[in-house]
């Protein structure tokens, strides 16, 4: 809505009026020339940081750039960018890497109000993720007891998970750009039935697939969204848990857990 208000119409991606250079022709009237020169003078060559949360294509470009520099940083210094930032006495080479990282970044990390809000929310989100890692949730209760899998089976399913995540990202980027799905991925569908069939082509035993996915999301990639696991295979897990007792956070005004202004407590309930 904010973007719509700014330019007077709804948009699906970054508005071209913000980035498209206008050719100033000799035959253009003076007022048209003045207008084109003005718009050319305020074109975006880089985007504000908060754009990565508004425009998928901007986020994709930013993540791609950051990943490349991250790899370079690890290869040169054996450190992540975050770890390098924390070093007090940096070498000239380390300083140069960080300086170029920010200079050529496709987004502007300034202290504008919107960027400050983004960083504040990111900090809160990171704190929640760290707390989630420390919480002692026995995710094994979700798994099928006695159903084992091999390392190769895990790798195969993990590869399909990454494929799914990439397809979702591409779908979001292309949808924002107004590209019809059939044009960029004619065989892809986000329906749970389609996704389930894709995984069962790899491992026909749904119990094995679910156990692998539970370990993937709850043990190995705890900060990754679990919408694939619960959106596609959730009904199997719920059916499997019937009759079991599970611990869940439920609303409780005297609870010891606070989230978004409300209080909760861990309560054991029997799944019916």
Work out the helicity level.
Answer: 55-70%
Gyration radius (Cα, Å) is 24 Å
- Shape, please? elongated
Strand order of the largest sheet: 3-5-4
Strand percentage? 5-15%
Stretches where pLDDT is under 50 for at least 5 consecutive residues are 1-9, 182-188
SSE string, helices as H and strands as E: HHEHHHEHHHHHHEEE
Output mean pLDDT.
80
Number of strands: 5
The first-to-last residue Cα distance is 43 Å
Total domains, how many?
A: 4
The helix/strand class is: mainly alpha
Q: Helix count? A: 11
**Sheet with the most strands, sense and barrel status:** 3 strands, antiparallel
Describe this entry's structure for a reader:
- It contains 11 helices and 5 strands; from the N terminus they run ααβαααβααααααβββ.
- It is elongated and about 80 Å long.
- 56% of the residues lie in helices and 8% in strands.
- It has helices spanning 2-7, 30-41, 56-77, 81-86, 92-103, 113-134, 151-176, 181-184, 192-202, 206-220, 227-241, and strands at residues 47-48, 107-108, 245-251, 257-259, 262-270.
- It folds into 4 domains: 1-45, no CATH class; 56-135, no CATH class; 139-237; 242-272, no CATH class.
- With 272 residues, the chain is mainly alpha-helical.
